[in-house]
Amino acid sequence: MQNTVAVTGADGFIGSHLVEALVERGHRVRAMVQYNSFASWGWLDDVAPGVLEQVDVVPGDVRDPASVRGLVRGAEAVYHLAALIAIPYSYRAPRSYVDTNVTGTLNVLEAVRDEETPRLVHTSTSETYGTARRVPIDEAHPLQAQSPYAATKIAADKLVESYHASFGLPAVTLRPFNTFGPRQSARAFIPTVVAQIAAGTGSRRGRGARTDPRLHLRPRHRRGVRRARHGARRGRRRRHVQLRHRRGDLHGRLARTIAGLMGADPEFRCAADRERPAASEVMRLVCDSG
Known about the structure:
Layout: E1 4-8, H1 13-24, E2 28-34, H2 49-52, E3 55-60, H3 65-72, E4 77-80, H4 87-92, H5 94-115, E5 120-123, H6 148-167, E6 171-176, E7 179-180, H7 189-198, E8 203-204, E9 211-212, E10 215-216, H8 222-234, E11 240-243, E12 249-250, H9 251-261, E13 269-270
Parallel strand pairs: 1-2, 1-4, 2-3, 4-5, 5-6, 6-11, 7-10, 8-13
Antiparallel strand pairs: 9-12
Helix pairs in contact: 3-5, 5-6, 7-9
């Protein structure tokens, strides 16, 4: 008999890859996608039909406790990825980020606790560390909320930590550093650079001095998901796992490397609609690979 695992945010970039990986490992997947009137399952629409045969797609919303409870019921594990992630929009609509990222996570925790789900894997972000105070960043690095988005993810992380400490809830938190790969938003750094060079423009988002690592979503990085899942099941004390690539890439250097591969020599500048307030910009992210 197949084990059923539940995934929130299954319609997203990382969530859709996770669904594929779980099916490859022999699981039946119950996948929550945000309900919409367009009959769209997000990036799950691009998943192979043979994979989708092992997926029960459940339209819903993590902000609704009943939706979450129905998703979680009977699952052997819950992977929580649903979140609002666009940092620039978090300056304009912070309450929506609180509702989804914080209250949504609380709904998942309450459902997992009440249903006595054996394990929860909660997905966070490297943005919770802010600009590095020391490098490489390890899991004990202080958390710094330099944007409303980061603040809501820190709050969600702390809720997970509190439920582990208060109720013995078997949970682990993943903090991926910047990921890239198929199905990534066209507004992310690498797709933006490629698209703008191809269009003959030189603008790009972010500041040229920013440093961060890039984690490609390919099978070998699925080991991090397995590592977190087993840690949650066995109740180990270590509750945070980083998915990372140690060497940081200067944004300017990375952009010029892409330009060279495309046979272009553009003049890069910061796109105004993507620039953060100065104190909110995360300038350095280099993670510890130990």
